[in-house]
Amino acid sequence: MAYPETIEASLDAPIISHKNKSDVKPLSRFSAFDAWWNEILSWFHNSRSQDGQVLDINGDKLTVEVADDLQEQQLGLGYRDILGEDEGMLFIYDQAALYRFWMKGMRFPLDMIWIRDGVIVDITRNVPVAKDPEYPVNQFAPSEPANWVLEVNAGWAERHKVVVGEKVALE
Questions:
Q1: Spatial contact of 34 and 41, defined as CB atoms under 8 Å apart
Q2: How far apart are CA 170 and CA 44, in angstroms?
Q3: Does position 50 have pLDDT exceeding 70, yes or no?
């Protein structure tokens, strides 16, 4: 990965953590960069509007944040600490495909509900947080092409008895 010239120059200097002055220790330049980047992403998520749209799955209503551009889709729910019980993130794509998702930066487990043209085509339940959320190795994809992907708290689909074939509508 190439970094902008100004960041590369700053990465050449020794980096020291000053969380606790009695515990000063050098960090590798990449772990310091990752820590800085995580803070930026956390701030970005916390500063975004939490106002969402309502998604109806067979009478169960969820407030969803819509991720319909590449930047929002790449960040997803990463670096957030919590998601409300009846909240989720809806990823909207122009075409149905076997989109692959990973759990980069995730701090809590999820259910992934895969939707094509308003109908649930697959459900990936209880996706765990990666051992190292910064470098997840597993990827998740539906068994059939989907053009929407809904991420909710792990167990939500089971608690609400969501099944393949149910209709989904964005209100």
A1: no
A2: 25
A3: no
**pLDDT of the residue at 36:** 57
One-letter amino acid at 76 equals G
- Give all strands (DSSP E) within the chain, no chain letters: 15-17, 25-27, 53-57, 60-67, 87-97, 110-116, 119-127, 146-153, 168-170
Give me the residue spans of the domains in the chain: 5-47, 53-170
Fold of 53-170: Jelly Rolls (2.60.120)
Rounded Cα gap, residues 71 and 73, in angstroms: 5
The per-residue pLDDT for range 81-110, each reduced to its tens digit, is 889 999 999 999 999 999 999 888 888 999
